[in-house]
């Protein structure tokens, strides 16, 4: 933990928890435990545009993790986060323990904003609650603090330009598999030329 409150991972370390782990070990702990792990910081989204998250959120690669208060309006100074109508359940040991929503950042004022490549997954604990059997022993567990249960855990990241043209499905792809590498136009040109040369060679008579 740095003096500014930010967390920098040591070289070679990658923070890449599953959806189940984000709910049970981080968001669930924040709601149930008075002294929860503070590796993920609390941020006010209304004061930050997505490109300002680096250095303030817990960042791992192009993914930025943070807690924020649950709000209907996700507006910032330069735009707003818009839900795209996708809601996925998160299951642990055959029990629904939470869900996540997908939002996209739009520049300007709603509803005439311009969509960007910034995507956010917003993690929620089930409002009906769930048993802690899947989290281990129930001994010493507390009821959720109502003020703490208003928190959500967010993971924000910027999609590649090529991915943003694939439609709704690109938001729901497993972004953890994104290696962050992308062919340049020069590489694509070289690969196309190589393919043409190979076709010409294979089509020549023996």
UniProtKB/TrEMBL annotation:
<keyword id="KW-0238">DNA-binding</keyword>
<keyword id="KW-0804">Transcription</keyword>
<dbReference type="Pfam" id="PF02365">
    <property type="entry name" value="NAM"/>
</dbReference>
<dbReference type="GO" id="GO:0003677">
    <property type="term" value="F:DNA binding"/>
</dbReference>
<dbReference type="InterPro" id="IPR036093">
    <property type="entry name" value="NAC_dom_sf"/>
</dbReference>
<dbReference type="InterPro" id="IPR003441">
    <property type="entry name" value="NAC-dom"/>
</dbReference>
<feature type="domain" description="NAC">
    <location>
        <begin position="9"/>
        <end position="159"/>
    </location>
</feature>
<protein>
    <recommendedName>
        <fullName>NAC domain-containing protein</fullName>
    </recommendedName>
</protein>
<keyword id="KW-0805">Transcription regulation</keyword>
<keyword id="KW-0539">Nucleus</keyword>
